[in-house]
Write a structure and sequence with these properties.
The complex is a heterodimer of chains A (about 140) and B (about 200). Chain A is of the alpha+beta class. Chain A contains three helices and eight strands; from the N terminus they run βββββααβββα. Chain B is α+β, with helices and mostly antiparallel strands. The chains are: A alpha+beta (about 140), B alpha+beta (about 200). At the A-B interface, β5, α1, α2 and β6 of A face β4 of B.
Chain lengths: ~140, ~200
Amino acid sequence: MDFQSFHDGHFDGIHLEPGKTVHIFLRAPNKDRYILVLKGVEALTLSGVKAGNIILDLVIRSAREATSTDVQELYDLGENNDQAAKLLGSTREKRLQILELNPSYGASGLFLFESFEIKETNEWMAFTLRSVEAKA
Amino acid sequence: MRARYFDPATGRFLSEDPLGFTAASNFYPYVGNRPLFFRDPWGKQPCCIPFALKYAGYGAAGGAGLTALGSVAVDAATGGINILATPSEIALGAAAGGAIGYGVGSLVDILMGTSCSSSPRSNPFRGKPGDVSTTRRPDGTPKQVRRYGPDGYPDTDVDHDTHGGNENPHAHDWGRPADGTPPTAGDRSEPGRPVTPSDPRPN
């Protein structure tokens, strides 16, 4: 499953796990459901969530492609360019990645994280059960 | 900036910011009244001013000032101070200073990664009736072209270069609920249809 396949698909929700893992629930145009698991999430912003969020595209960018505009949006920095430059530097040092969730309708998001996995629903449920059991 | 009418006489915008409450509690300021730090070339999403542009401004001011200062002479007869540089020489100094500032600022931008995207990542849901909004990828190719209907909500989306099962490009029409309420996800035609000559084109 590649990210381009989610064009005209749906963003169904998000689960923020204690710690730095974020689960993003997605539906492809053919109705298949996937969970994008982001690990080592440093920052995220999500806005405009509505019923039936339609995805324009999902874009992954490397730390080198991160901009101060991204950092300003992620950390609500406003005009504080010095802080943006520092955070951008640390984003690059840690080799973090950026995920853009761009909408045709509804939710718009930006996520700063270390790594990701795409899981099908069954695989994700098994993975989540294992994690819960391990913590119990 | 291109999404609103500006009255040069009063120095104020005549129309509301299309970003509405997402931009500021007051709909009329430009980039939240922080023009030193932000610009908004498309009128839809403020973004930072990179060092290249800022330094070009400082360089131009410095170049003009130095040119003028360098030509100062004291009039022997009156004791008054004259600036001998002509306006065109001062403008030339400003241009040279601006170019140097831009070069230095570009280097800083490369080192610090402080360039800014000039286009929003997605089209706003509301726009000026009849307007066309284009969202582009970083390489400049269009992603989505959206035209707004008479009520300011989307009328047609033309999606480009996508691989979601629809042909490329393809169009989605936005219908309207019979009760007159704003359109929602279910009012967007799915699957997309082939593009026709009457569909919006990238602007």
